Amino acid sequence: MALSAATAISIHSQTLSPIQAVPAALQQLREHGLRCLVLTNQTRIASGELDEKALVASLLALGVDDVFVCPHPAVVGCNCRKPHLGLFRQASMRYAFTAQEAVVIGDSNQADMGLALAAGCLGLHVATGRNEPASGLPGIIEQPDFAAATNWVLTHYGSPI
Q1: Is this model's pTM higher than 0.90 or not?
Q2: Cα separation of 94 and 69, whole Å?
Q3: Domains along the chain with CATH numbers
Q4: 104 forms bridges with which residues in the sheet?
C-alpha cells in the first residue's frame, strides 16, 4: 500500500497534523497484514519551509511502516519525483513487492494517480487533501476519503495482496 503524505496528514508550514480517521484506518490495514508506505513529493523541504525529519517522524507516528521522500523541486527533473517511478522502485526493492501487489492511495491526479498508472498498479484517488475532481482515468477508482479507500481495499483484498 503506497500512500501520499497529503492523504494522511495536513501540512501547513511546519505544522503537521493527522487527517481525521487516518490513524484508525492505517491500524486497520496493518491488522490485516498490509504494509503501509508513504511516497511523497515535498518541495518545501528544499526551500527550508518543511523539516524532512519532522515530516517522517509525524508519518511514522501515525502508524505507517516507512516513508520515501522526494525533496526536490519539479524543475530539478529527478527520477524520484512522482509520477516518476524512483520512489516506487526504492520502496519495492526495500520491501520486495511487485506492482500487481501494490495499491496507490492519493489525492493528486497528476502525481499519485500518474504514479499508479506508470507503475502498473491499482490507484485509489481520494477527494481529501487537494480536493481534486475525479480523474476520469482508466484503472483509477474514486473514493471520498482515506477511510473509504481503506474499506475498499479490505473488501476487495482483505488480506495481504
Answers
A1: no
A2: 14
A3: 7-157 (3.40.50.1000)
A4: 2, 123
Q: Give CA separation, 71 vs 28, 53, 101, 156, in Å.
A: 29, 12, 26, 33
What's the whole-number average pLDDT of the chain? 84
Rounded CA separation 93/130 (Å)? 29
Q: How distant, in Å, are the alpha carbons of 26, 44, 49, 63 from that of 147?
A: 9, 27, 29, 15
Alpha-carbon span 32 to 125, nearest angstrom? 21
Beta-bridged to residue 3, according to DSSP, are 38, 105
Output the DSSP codes for 4-26: -HHHHEEEETTEEEEPTTHHHHH
Give yes or no for a contact between 91 and 112, defined as CB atoms under 8 angstroms apart.
no
Secondary element (H or E) of residue 2: strand 2-3
pLDDT less than 50: residues of the chain: 9-13, 160-161
According to the model, what pLDDT value does residue 8 have? 53
CB neighbours of residue 58 within 10 Å = 20
